[in-house]
Amino acid sequence: MKLSERVEALAESATLAVTAKAAQLKAEGVDVVSYGAGEPDFDTPDNIKQAAIRAINEGQTKYSKPATGIAPVKAAVCEKLARENDLSYEPSQVIVTSGGKMACYLAIQALVNPGDEVIIPVPYWVSYPEMVKLAGGVPVFLNGDENDSFKFSPAMLESAITPRTRMLIFNSPSNPGGFTYHPHEVDAIADVVTKHDIVTLSDEIYDRLRYEGQGFKSFAATNAKAYEQTLTLIGASKTYSMTGWRAGYVAGPQSIVKAMAKLQSQSTSGACTFVQHGLIEALTGDQSAVEQMRSEFEKRALHIHHRLTSISGISCNRPTGAFYVFPNVSRTYDKIGVTNSVDFSKAVLEKAHVAVVPGAAFGMDACVRFSFACSMEQIDKGLDRLADFLA
Ligand code: PLP
Questions:
Q1: Which string of b and e fits 174-204 if b means at least 16 CB within 10 Å?
Q2: Is the pLDDT of residue 148 over 90?
Q3: pLDDT tens digit sequence for 187-223
Q4: Which of 17, 135, 327, 380 could form an SS bridge with 316, CB 3.0 to 4.6 Å?
Q5: CATH C-level class of 5-43+289-390
Q6: Domain residues of the chain, as ranges?
Q7: Does domain 62-284 have CATH number 3.40.640.10?
Q8: Which residues line ligand 1 (CB under 6 A)?
Q9: Best substitution site from 97, 205, 242 to test ligand 1's pocket, by max atoms within 8 Å of Cβ?
Q10: pLDDT at residue 20, as a whole number
């Protein structure tokens, strides 16, 4: 069967591929420790579940009206952005989507023309380059500085901007890097962006998962011009452990949001209606579960960093946000007879029964990604195995 060139050119998500291989081994009875998942290992808080169940029982089971999100959910998003992100948006500047991923897709489709350059800092979330290519755009990779937690500097950004640059994708806290830009760093990057006619897609989906008092600033909150040039993307998946619900949202300039709304009305017809009721409860209800999950992630972040850096040949930055750690493992390649992160990941999966995601999927072949969305016991069990394997 002949498939479209667009789809033929798409790479399969490497994160899903590793999770699938680990699941296959598990199904064969192998006891695999998986650090592959990009989703919290906690249950969705009960108040959120009950709100969605109530909505179903009350008949909130029809199309979302409007397709951009029901009025109370947009109000809840505006309230959250004002309360937690120092951002003032009108409901007409908000669109609720089937997950943050769809929001990202709509934003890129709405803004990128064939040949347009989109600056993507490395390491990046796997889907950004593929989504840019789907729109006919050209990903321009900006390598972060390993000595500075893989962050890029304003000067590095300036030198990557050309007359063809249409967009910067900024993700902090970072998947897969686990780093977070300090407010003064965000200010300095925004100062570069606002000298140019480019849009920043600021992916702040991990905005509340930060550790050890790490500071944070929303990109659009840096200055008035940046506000006009930024799409702020968040969602419920990570903060509220709602990955399967598919609840994301974006706020930004009305003209862009309107274009995204047009696309949404011709594709998904909007986020699931009763999920939107769950999202309202998530954003406006009791927030204590968020702190419980965040503090558990914080303990794991410190522990996994400590354990990884005790293994000879592995170096890594301490995660300040999200739930990933992204060690450089390339100094072990010779020892175990591999030359890249994909073969490293295959070897540790097959020989030590530990699943990690190759850094190549995120544009950095010296590294692998560990998600610490698993229990302390699992973290220790997997790292015992890895340490033995690499000894
Ligand atoms: N952005 C980043 C950086 C992510 O890590 C993810 C999920 O892994 C998403 C966006 C999309 O999440 P969702 O579609 O579940 O809201």
A1: bbbbbbbbeeebbbbbbbbbbeeebbbbbbb
A2: no
A3: 999 999 999 999 999 999 999 999 999 999 999 999 9
A4: 327
A5: alpha beta
A6: 5-43+289-390, 62-284
A7: yes
A8: 38, 99-101, 104, 125, 171, 175, 203, 205, 235, 237, 243, 248
A9: 205
A10: 76
